[in-house]
From TrEMBL:
Top-rank taxon: Eukaryota
This protein's UniProt keywords: Nucleus, Transferase, Ubl conjugation pathway
SUPFAM superfamilies: RING/U-box (SSF57850)
Organism: Leptidea sinapis
InterPro entries linked: NOSIP, PPIL2_U-box_dom, Znf_RING/FYVE/PHD
Ranges in coiled-coil conformation: none
Designated name of the protein: RING-type E3 ubiquitin transferase
Length: 294
């Protein structure tokens, strides 16, 4: 910063100096926080987005409800999160443990699982632990047996359920079935399509009575079929109806691609077939009454 009156080096920090040289607010071109991030809790199914009862996971640690994932795989044959092909046999059943407060926790260190916990599962046994217990008692001690039932496993059998440093896998907006709107209809939704009364569960009693009375008294109107007259060998004209040309030149008409013979009026056909002369006899009956005035 200068001290002279007419030099460019001012006694204060200019806007350009503050933003480019000495920190300050970053420009709008900087990487901004992803506003579309919607986190799924670790105890929720990645498919139905509801808390799970029977938890199964894939090799990436994505957890699914058993019945939901079976129905989805039967219909689409793909992983609902990644979009890759998957088989039901490749899923691993998870065994979560709960404490006295009915919260999921580590059965070894008894630490409750939170959204910031590092949670892992053993593929061969399905038991779920916090990563700290597996790291201290298995990895560092080179004890490759499950901490609950001594089931043997390898390092590659450790599946990461939740890593607080990598939460991108819990972003709902990146799930394949969410982006492509893939879903399996429930039994209630199928019943609603077949039976319209299934939609009337929340209506009032008065509305139900009105609908029942309407069903008893309603009569569908008779549908009259308009039979199209077809030309035969008697009334067929030697020229067409002109509908092909009319539909070709007018966008308001239904397109026609077949020429049809015009139909001659019935009276014209009838008089053309009269070959003999006919006579008409007219009889006039006159009655004369003479009224005399007496």
């Amino acid at each position: 910063m200068g001290k002279r009156q007419h030099q460019k080096d001012k006694m204060y920090l200019t806007y350009t100096e503050w933003t480019t040289l000495y920190g300050g607010k970053r420009s709008g071109t900087a990487v901004e926080e992803d506003t579309t991030f919607k986190r799924l809790p670790f105890d929720h199914c990645c498919l139905c987005l509801q808390p799970f009862d029977q938890a199964y996971c894939d090799g990436d640690g994505n957890i699914f409800e058993l019945q939901a994932i079976i129905d989805f795989i039967k219909k689409y044959k793909i992983n609902p999160v990644t979009g890759k092909k998957i088989d039901v046999k490749g899923l691993v059943k998870l065994n979560f443990f709960k404490n006295a407060n009915d919260d999921y926790h580590c059965p070894v260190l008894f630490k409750p699982f939170t959204k910031n916990s590092h949670i892992v599962a053993i593929k061969t046994s399905g038991n779920v632990y916090c990563y700290e217990a597996v790291e201290q008692l298995n990895i560092k001690g080179k004890n490759w047996k499950d901490l609950i039932n001594d089931t043997a496993f390898t390092r590659s059998d450790i599946i990461t359920i939740q890593d607080p440093n990598n939460l991108a896998k819990f972003n709902i907006s990146t799930f394949h079935h969410v982006k492509n709107n893939l879903r399996v209809e429930t039994e209630e939704e199928i019943a609603m399509k077949k039976d319209p009364h299934a939609r009337l569960k929340s209506v009032s009693a008065e509305t139900k009575d009105i609908l029942q009375e309407l069903e008893r008294e309603y009569k569908a109107p008779e549908v009259k079929e308009n039979k199209k007259e077809v030309a035969d060998k008697f009334n067929a004209a030697h020229y067409s109806t002109g509908m092909v040309a009319a539909s070709f030149t007018s966008t308001a008409m239904v397109p026609e691609t077949k020429h049809e013979a015009a139909i001659i009026c019935e009276d014209e056909v009838k008089y053309e077939r009269v070959k003999k002369k006919g006579g008409i006899s007219l009889q006039y009956l006159c009655m004369i009454r003479i009224f005399t005035l007496g």
